[in-house]
Amino acid sequence: MLGVHIDSNLSWHTHVEAIVSKATQRLYFLKQLKRAGVRRAQLLHFYISVILPVLEYAVPVWHHLLTKTQTDRISSKACMHSV
Predict the structure, then answer these.
(1) Fewer CB within 10 Å: C terminus or N terminus of the chain?
(2) Helices (H) then strands (E): counts for the chain
(3) Closest alpha carbon to 10 in 69, 62, 53
(4) Region class of 80: left (phi > 0), else alpha (psi between -120 and 50), else beta
(5) pLDDT tens-digit series, residues 12-53
(6) Is the pTM of this model over 0.85?
(7) CA-CA distance, 6 to 50, in Å (whole number)?
(8) In the chain, what are the domain boundaries?
(9) Distances (CA, A) of 8 to 14, 61, 77
(10) Where are the beta strands (DSSP E) in 1-83?
């Protein structure tokens, strides 16, 4: 489910944890596809259509309010260097 999670103290910790968790699960599936021999173009298509939207949903609303640590956590999931 897509959504924006806001803590009771108006921090973005819950939101960051939710999207990192969801992206991590999907990245695991992407790695399984790679191990199964799926072509790189198809892996890229999966990443763009299934993983990236999770990381970018409503980003103009919340990204500018993140700490550097939170931004780094999300960015680490946004890189396809492991594929």
Answers:
(1) N
(2) 5, 0
(3) 62
(4) alpha
(5) 788 888 888 988 999 999 999 999 999 999 999 999 999 988
(6) no
(7) 23
(8) 13-78
(9) 10, 17, 26
(10) none
What are 17's two structure tokens? 């944890």
* Distance spanning both ends of the chain, measured CA to CA: 25
Structure-token match 């599936």, residue found: 29
User: How far is Cα 74 from Cα 83, in angstroms, rounded to an integer?
Assistant: 17
Cα dihedral 19/25/28/32 (nearest 10): -130
Residue 71 near residue 13 (C-beta atoms within 8 A): no
What angle, 0 to 180 degrees and rounded to 10, lies between the N-to-C axes of helices 13-35 and 68-78? 20
Tell me the two tokens of residue 32: 């399984």
